[in-house]
Structures are given as C-alpha cells and as structure tokens.
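**User:** Once you have settled down, spend some time on the protein underneath, comparing sequence with structure tokens, and judge whether sequence predicts the tokens.
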Amino acid sequence: MTKTTKAARTTYAALLRGINVGGNKKVPMAELRQVLEGLGHEEVQTYLQSGNAVFADASGKTTTALARELEAAIEAHFGFRVPCLVLDGAYLRAVADACPFPAAELEGKQLHATFCSEQPAESRFASIDAPAYLPEEYRVGDRVIYLYAPNGLGRSKLGESLAKPAVVKGLDVTTRNWNTVVKLVELTEE
C-alpha cells in the first residue's frame, strides 16, 4: 500500500479594495465565497462586508499570482475590476507583532494598517511633514504603513496625505482598522 501525501495548505487573507462603499462596486460576500471556491480554494470564509476573505490553498502559487487570479475571477463574475491583495497568515502575524504603536492600549478605530503590493520607497514620504500632523503618526513596516489616528481615519489629515498619489501611485493599497487586522490574524491561524 502506498501512502499519498496531501500537499501542504497555506491559509491566506484576500483584501479587496473599494467594494460595497456608497453603493458602488457591490460584491455580496456569499458570491465572493462562491468565486473563491470556484478557483479551487477551500475553507473559504468572509469577514465583514468590506472585502475581507480567508481561504486555504495548496497550489503553491505566489500571493501575487493568487491576487491576479482573484481579480480576473471577480471581473469575470461581477463585470468590474477590483484590486486585491492576498496575504498569508504568517505575514499578517508578523505585521501585527511588528506594530510600532501600543495596539493593546488603543481603540481599533485609532490604529490602521495600509497594506501595499510592494515595499514603498522612503522617497515616497519625502513630502510629508510628520511633525505637522501630531498627534497623528505613521510608521512604515514590511509592505505596510501603520497609521495612528486618535480621532479615527475619517478625520485624519495624515491619512489623507498618505493616500495621495505621491505616496501610493503604482501600488495596490488597501487599509484596514486594527480590529480587522487582529481578526484576520485569528482567522488565518485557525
């Protein structure tokens, strides 16, 4: 009798950018789960309506390949393009562990992580006069920009500056509050 080895599966989080906001680019989570399952992913679940999904995959594809595949499937199913980032659970855990702000002491709405498709060069931040935005602060990590906005992202002037083309042009980026980051870490570790 020969033993068959099952390929190792990795758990990923897919972060979709700019869906279900103001009635635009509607992507019902049940349909997103179907799209992911149609791509052969397993253990698919979604979190909130803002485009967070978790799935297991054993294909060995890169996160970039998985993201492009998902973008194509979403466009084919819904008729519009949605930028996607796919992040593995180990990376999400590393982002949470490397947070330069005291996350446990802050409300989730005060701390945000902007995930980037590539590491942003330091030169992208040259025009930002960080002391002018205090008490708001930011730090750059591994393909992530941490933002402390004590009054929330909706009122954050620093958040607006970090979203300008000088900083993010040419990158796929999407922001999540810290509560969502923590939940995605939990879901990818289950």
